[in-house]
Automatic annotation (TrEMBL):
The name this protein goes by in its record: Gfo/Idh/MocA family oxidoreductase
Lineage: Bacteria, Bacillati, Actinomycetota, Actinomycetes, Propionibacteriales
Domain GFO/IDH/MocA-like oxidoreductase: 130-249
Annotated InterPro entries: Gfo/Idh/MocA-like_OxRdtase_N (IPR000683), Gfo/Idh/MocA_Oxidoreductases (IPR051450), GFO_IDH_MocA-like_dom (IPR055170), NAD(P)-bd_dom_sf (IPR036291)
GO molecular function: nucleotide binding
Amino acid sequence: MGSRTLRVGIIGAGHIAHAHLRELVQQPGVQISAVVDVRADAARALARACGATACATVEQACSAIDAAYLLTPPRVREHAVAVLTAAGIPVLCEKPLAADVPSARRLAELVRAAGSPFMVGFVRRWHPPYQRIRTLVAAGELGRLLMVQRQRLGYLPLSQGNWRTDPSQAVGMTVESLSHDLDLLRWLVGEVVEIEGRVVGSRPELRDFDDTVLATARFADGTIGSWQASWMSAVEHNSLALIGDAGTAVLSGRGMWRSDSLTTAAPGATERVELLAEDEAADMGFAGETTTFLALARGEQVEHPTVEDGLRTVELSASILS
């Protein structure tokens, strides 16, 4: 695509669009050229804010864009994926890839058939403390991994305008939010070969809506793992622990997303506790995700979460729920 300006379209003008736009507007050689949303007022408002054109349909936007951020709720993505991939437009698709396994498989087939760049928005891969953990694992500093644990607790209010608690769009925590954590451990450890779990729902007004999950798994290399997550915890906290035969690393943070401290130790050695700098602790990963996708959209070969990663997390979520 050379050095010319990359025209980016935003498909879905909800809350997450603003997080992506904060990074996109800082990138040289990028122009936000089109915004699409079924809510015409939302499309117009976001388009005005970033100097773009509000479009009524994805088809209308295609002629004005070179790459697309697909940020709609997962139940309503299939048509947009079909249109964008058929046009050969690189896509960053928010997670989860889809609401269920059949839909995810259809989307994956569309992407495979088109062959155009497609990245799933597992933004936590670019959280700097997680990248440090991955480096520790790859360097063998923890030895052979024995067990990994991921915990993420917080509270999701029943907010009007949030699709996550809209009865017509909601998919529950295990499909939606836990997809981050399923992908994170796959990225750190490798493929999951066995998984099972239990879920609880505490909101009767949302039918078949799970908000608390406990899952256990075995990875291809023999490591065992677990996930604990809830949208109903009045105490917000998250942690990531990796236990190997040569060392242990534990990240811990206030809230659902921060990593405030890293504790490491070898067997029999004194623990080393590092308090992380604020810019590292609070970095959600959007900056790294943005630069990676823009490189992909410009034709560069970069490591990124693929449609196959997106499909696999939906399959794992379905296994937990089954």
